[in-house]
Amino acid sequence: MLTGKQKRFLRSKAHHLNPIFQVGKGGVNDNLIKQIGEALEVRELIKVSILQNCEEDRNDVGLALSKGARAELVQIIGNTIVLYKESKENKQLKLP
């Protein structure tokens, strides 16, 4: 689990990132979770945007993505979810 200080640090790092995934009408599926898991291994910190036509609640989407990809849910702000997972091969971020 992340501490408040670590979440603040990650939010500041994620601020300038652009979302690289979108959750739309199809909602959360295995393929999306697999791709997000792979992206997290490379980048550690990603943003996912939730489109207007997504029928699921954004909190449910955030929880489903973080559980499926075994990542930490850093933040849900507006229709954007920030996810973090420490990389095994490719460590870039040093948490405080």
From TrEMBL:
* Record domain CRM: where: 1-96
Q: Which UniProt keywords apply?
A: RNA-binding
Gene3D superfamilies per the record? YhbY-like
The record, for InterPro entries, names: RNA-binding_CRM, RNA-binding_domain, RNA-binding_YhbY, YhbY-like_sf
* Domain of life, per lineage: Bacteria
Q: Which NCBIfam families match?
A: RNA_bind_YhbY
Q: Which PANTHER family match?
A: RNA-BINDING PROTEIN YHBY (PTHR40065:SF3)
Q: Under what name is this protein listed?
A: Ribosome assembly RNA-binding protein YhbY
